[in-house]
TrEMBL record, chains A, B, C, D:
Keywords: Hydrolase, One-carbon metabolism, Purine biosynthesis. This is Formyltetrahydrofolate deformylase. The active site is at D227. The gene is purU. Belongs to the PurU family. Catalyzes the hydrolysis of 10-formyltetrahydrofolate (formyl-FH4) to formate and tetrahydrofolate (FH4). GO terms for molecular function: formyltetrahydrofolate deformylase activity.
Length: 282, 282, 282, 282
């Protein structure tokens, strides 16, 4: 086997728990002469669900590998084989630059294995920043449109780029269920709060009024309900009485961008599994 | 002035903001030949309120000092002079030992300048632990009593010990407004969550169901509304998908006891000011 | 198979990395009709070493299970089968109570699956605390003894209790290499600093002089060199200019006890693997 | 007094501690009809030193204000009056983009009240990034030069821009004492470690070899000795056995940029006082 032909892929398995699953899956890999670079699994005993992420190296025959796995796995199994490649994303923004800026920097200078195919904004504000990085910025204004019309326009633009993920980097409008269903488990949002606290508008003002001593941010998948999707990553910082709502907002921006980029790092490495309203990160 | 006669006291001032306040107060201290060991102040520009904590050393004539301060301060000022002594507390518990155990250890072996006058429980569970530390444990059972009757019985026991503060160290019953009003700004609770999330019962199960990636605890003053008093201290720890609700509970216990004891440390040092629903910690 | 006969054990494997290891090991478990409750593995590609922790449930025939594993594993493999039982420890102390108190509380009231067989001190200071919890305290004074003699006396006392681990809960003397070699990978220390900073005496004073903004603690195995063993757990807290060395020490105590107890939790669950000077926690 | 003429300035006082200092200083401000927006002070009782930061609003007559303060303060006092304006910095870089990128973003899009006058690099690597933000990038190559010659060339370039501060944003060369002395208490460095651990080269590899469970970063003033200046800010993140040295480096970059930008925020607000080898942040 020549070194130069070796490929890396990630096998992801979700199935009903059963005895011998790890042996069955790794036996198949062994038979295909694939090296297991890293393997992580988790059994959720409450729901009787088995999750496994297997990072493989070797020469892949995807078709026979998947067929062999289908033969080894129980009914109702999901298995996916992903190339360990750079992923494509489209980023949605409104007016705030901090999360977008961090993603632009990391895409170009390292830290995230991601290609930003395009940035879509409902305002012109961030065009200059995006164009500085020689990337396309597309304005999809919501002016004079219903929410459905606007989301339709956005979806049309996004689908043109065939992204693996859609990142809401401080996109400040609520998305329609229809839009969300077009990108199942592909939309990732950064919420300016540690959910489930302070859902909705002006969370830093809510936090200030409540006199909290910590503020945070939550990165999560977007499903039908606003701010209710499966949580990927959360973090907080400490604040004190001297912080105004504006100070909290400024300090919170760093948490937001850090949490979004750390969440995205795990998603891009195919480590995040969604099951029900929870995530398993392997 | 002889070293041995020197006393330490903490002067706390809350008043409407006005020009020259710091000068006026420190001038009075200067005139009384009191050394300022530490001085911290804060102006809340939103409410136009001035807060100052002044740690003083010298020979005190409390009466003339307070009279001079009254002459120097504007209408509507509150000023308090506290001896920098050990404080007395009564602790309320139900069945969980971890917060109580930490307070018992720190009261006896250092870490908190506090005398535990008594521990009051609505169950017998923790009597043995308290008596190991040679402190009185008083059972005030709620069996067969209305909430009002039970709280009355408790208040009667507590008042016998004349505590400076009443600490709810995992006391798991809701207190009546009448009880709360008997100890204004004197009741401190540890809430097994980072407020305002997961108010009410079984917060760790709520947190598990929501799939959160951080859990926390909040120490706060108790006012009329359950879990709604001014927050003193909060902290969190990171959890992941492998945590069951029980694991979260176990890990959360350390956060709870740490947050309660850190909050109490600030309260005992007369550093915590309550204004509206917020605290200022100087 | 009757539910009541089921046992839980932890299988730990360390061996040279090779293709198909996970399959081989889990195939053996499968053949023995053992359920894998949890499985975690890690390959250190730098050293070519494979580590796996397998939590098993079923009816165990230890002898044939281990023989089957030996047949399946490559030369130079280490595999251990541990009952998932309560572990016994002996705790060594000097004068400080905070780590000991936390362990006493958690052993008795939950949080650590550990039986404290005895506490050994080189001073009488903590006898009262230990006896409050109805546990044996043994004074092994170092007065008038060489370090070797003292350590010999201690080892003799400790070995009488046949502990699984020896916990240094702020034991403030350096141990002889001879003592350390009698308890290989069984001695766990809490160091009042985040190693490798501030090795040696008075670390909080060193930290104060250096003007650091964070202080921390490190739990580690003890090997020949003071403060140089494999690190299990570390944590820090933020401090500022207002902290004296004594304030740092007081605040540091909570970090120390938290880190020690979290490290011990992982060790007791058979999750910590030592390899060279590093730990792998599965 | 007309609203539109009001100015904001920050008065910073360092002097030997003495009774009545706060009164004396605030009396002077009061006499000048200046509003105290915020006042913070600290007495270091070990060195007998008094530090005060006073944020003032009003109409300033700098000359008489400073003269009045000189009359009120003891011998050996330092007092400075700074306009609360945007500050100018020159940034020094080598090849790594992450800290520079964060500063560029925050200077242009908010988060730091700073004007980046120029970026000086000893490699061309980051020219494109700087020019994207329409700022001057100046290459000062060290090729074929002694350290003294190179530092002289850099100092000449830097002084042309008359910066308030010189930021080492991952500038990877050691500076000469001569260079450092030209910018006293004006050079701020981000060190890729939590000092005092892992001084010197390749700290992430040192950290990996030592098997640490936390890695961090330190922002500090630069004085004569490498990595030994007064610490302004530190933070850490948790890592585990699965991190290679490269993973630590990647994760560490976010800590580095966060710590540098938070330190700079405090410095720009004139909150950081240097005394000996420690900082006081008011």
């Amino acid at each position: 086997m020549q070194q130069q032909n070796l490929q890396r892929k990630v096998l992801r398995t979700i199935c009903p728990d059963a005895r011998g699953l790890i042996a069955r899956i790794t036996n198949v890999c062994f038979k295909h002469e694939l090296n297991i670079i890293q393997n992580n699994e988790f059994v959720d005993h409450r729901t009787g669900r088995f999750f496994m992420r297997t990072e493989l190296e070797g020469i892949f025959n995807d078709k026979t590998l998947l067929a062999d796995l289908d033969g080894a796995l129980p009914e109702g199994s999901v298995r996916e084989l992903h190339p360990a490649d750079r992923r494509r994303v489209v980023i949605l923004v409104t007016k705030e630059a901090h999360c977008l800026g961090d993603l632009l920097m990391k895409s170009e200078y390292g830290g995230l294995n991601v290609e930003i195919a395009a940035v879509v904004g409902n305002h012109e504000t961030l065009r200059a920043l995006v164009e500085r990085f020689d990337l396309p910025f597309i304005l999809v204004s919501h002016e004079g449109l219903t929410r459905e019309q606007h989301d339709n326009n956005m979806a049309a633009v996004i689908e043109r780029y065939e992204p693996d993920y859609v990142i809401l980097a401080k996109y400040m409008r609520v998305l329609t269920p229809d839009f969300v269903q077009r990108f199942p488990n592909k939309i990732i949002n950064i919420h300016h709060s540690f959910l489930p606290a302070f859902i909705g508008a002006r969370p830093y003002h809510q936090a200030y009024e409540r006199g909290v001593k910590i503020i945070g941010a939550t990165a999560h998948y977007v499903n039908d309900n606003l701010d209710e999707g499966p949580i990927i990553m959360q973090d907080v910082i400490h604040v004190d009485h001297s912080y105004s709502a504006e100070d909290m907002m400024r300090a919170g921006r760093d948490v937001e961008k850090n949490v979004l980029s750390r969440a995205l790092y795990q998603v891009l490495a195919q480590r995040v599994f969604v099951y029900g309203n929870r995530t398993i990160i392997l």
